[in-house]
Write a structure and sequence with these properties.
heterodimer, A: mainly alpha, Arc Repressor Mutant, subunit A, 2 domains, three-stranded antiparallel β-sheet, 5 strands, about 65% helix, B: Arc Repressor Mutant, subunit A, 5 helices
């Protein structure tokens, strides 16, 4: 009985995915083999030969899938939750697959940091958007090295690459908070938006009574607690918040000092 | 309304950040201003002249919200009063602070007005009479700190509006006010 209609399309899709999955598995096995051979012999040529055999195919495949996924998500805006969830999984998975051809000292030579800087800017833009426009440098370091998989870069290299962004026309920038914490953020990222969210957070009934701690803010804003503390302190420095230090720790309240009329303090 | 004895506390007394020294300059200025006013109001209503930083001072803690001022914060707020001439450190270690909810000059004027209003010109009053006598009962002069009173009287003396007679013993000093002069 011939298969027709929607069912046929679905099955074709299914088969396509399955064969792609098989390819990927093969590729992973190849990679594993290459790692094993790395430990056995120190000959660079053999390693790169192994790596280039299937690893490259795999990377290409991953890249294709990513492109497909991106076009799909822009084409169908009315997809249901389940699809969104699986897409999210796919995205995360693709991110962990990593970078097609990581910049290394061997491939780039003297231009190492410059090229690293550009690749980092390209790579980080997507996770950065997902994180709300700002990420701690530590997180960037972990994420980027995880994407590279091998040939990890040192923290110094990362810092140097980030500081080179000033010279290039890239959409991301390195930012240092007064406390010394370094983050990267998109150039379009505006503190005002964060301040507005913090301000509304601090004016909720519960927060008016008990204030907000950095971890409360981290939870609500969906960012790292360290970063949330920086945001709170920034908001404090421009007079939106003020602090309360007690045995319970540091908490922030909406700044009411300016609301109080010294002439009529009982209002 | 929360009260401290018969003193009415403002609502922001229950605002926890009020008890933490604010690090941001503008916020701190406002906070210091509120503390200065509250300290002066409280001392005036309770006739408190000396605040000791070593001892508990009711205004500097709020058991209801479990907050109290740190030593540093107390010193900052009192130092702000000192800068304005509304308080004086009584020792180098900044352990005790004399609160002048009326400045010495204002005290001197207050004494002059009191004397005029009560027709006591050319009268002789002892210092103790001013502090706890019948005439001053119900006025700000009742229970005035001896040191503050003596300085106000000396100021009047310098202006030729009063004379201080020294008695034979230390606590036997007479003041004769003469606003007419």
């Amino acid at each position: 009985m011939p298969v027709v209609g929607v069912f046929a399309i679905l099955r074709m899709e299914q088969e396509a995915w399955e064969s792609a999955g098989q390819n990927l598995q093969d590729a992973f096995q190849d990679l594993n083999a290459s790692f094993l051979s790395t430990t056995k012999c120190s000959n660079d040529l053999i390693i790169s030969a192994c790596k280039f055999s299937k690893a490259k195919e795999m990377m290409e495949l991953a890249e294709k899938m990513r492109q497909k996924l991106l076009t799909n998500s822009s084409a169908q805006s009315n997809s249901n939750d389940e699809e969104l969830g699986s897409k999210q999984d796919m995205q995360d998975w693709l991110l962990s697959v990593g970078i097609v051809s990581p910049v290394t000292k061997e491939t780039a030579g003297a231009l190492y940091h410059q090229q690293l800087s550009r690749q980092l800017a390209d790579y980080i833009s997507i996770p950065l958007e997902q994180a709300g426009g700002m990420m701690a440098l530590v997180d960037v370091y972990c994420l980027y090295n995880r994407a590279r998989g091998t040939d990890l870069i040192s923290p110094e290299d990362l810092l140097q690459a980030c500081s080179l962004w000033e010279k290039f026309d890239v959409p991301v920038m390195l930012r240092k908070f007064d406390s010394g914490v370094k983050v990267i953020q998109t150039k379009t990222h505006s503190d005002d938006e964060v301040f507005a969210r913090i301000s509304s957070l601090a004016q909720k009934a519960d927060a008016l009574k008990k204030g907000i701690s950095p971890s409360d803010a981290a939870f609500t804003l969906g960012i790292a607690p360290g970063l949330a503390k920086e945001h709170l302190q920034n908001a404090e420095s421009i007079g939106i918040l003020c602090r309360d230090v007690s045995p319970d720790g540091l908490r922030f309240y909406i700044n009411l000092f300016n609301e109080i009329d010294p002439q009529n303090i009982y209002l | 309304m929360q009260r401290l004895g018969d003193f009415r506390l403002p609502p922001f007394f229950n605002y926890p950040p009020y008890f933490t020294l604010q690090p941001v300059r503008e916020t701190r200025e406002k906070q210091v201003q509120l503390w200065k006013d509250l300290i002066l109001d409280y001392c005036r209503s309770q006739k408190i002249y000396i605040i000791s930083l070593e001892e508990d001072f009711p205004l500097f803690s709020n058991p209801k919200i479990e907050r109290s001022l740190s030593h540093e914060a107390k010193e900052v707020f009192l130092a702000a009063l000192v800068n304005e001439g509304r308080a004086e450190w009584m020792d180098k270690g900044h352990k005790k602070c004399l609160i002048l909810w009326l400045r010495i000059q204002d005290w001197a004027n207050y004494i002059l007005n009191f004397v005029k209003d009560n027709g006591l010109e050319d009268n002789v009053m002892t210092v103790e009479e001013i502090r706890s006598g019948i005439e001053t009962r119900g006025t700000e002069l009742a229970g005035i700190d001896r040191g503050v009173l003596m300085r106000a009287l000396k100021l009047l003396e310098q202006k030729g509006k009063a004379a201080i007679f020294k008695g034979s013993s230390a606590d036997d000093e007479d003041a004769k006010e003469n606003p007419a002069l």
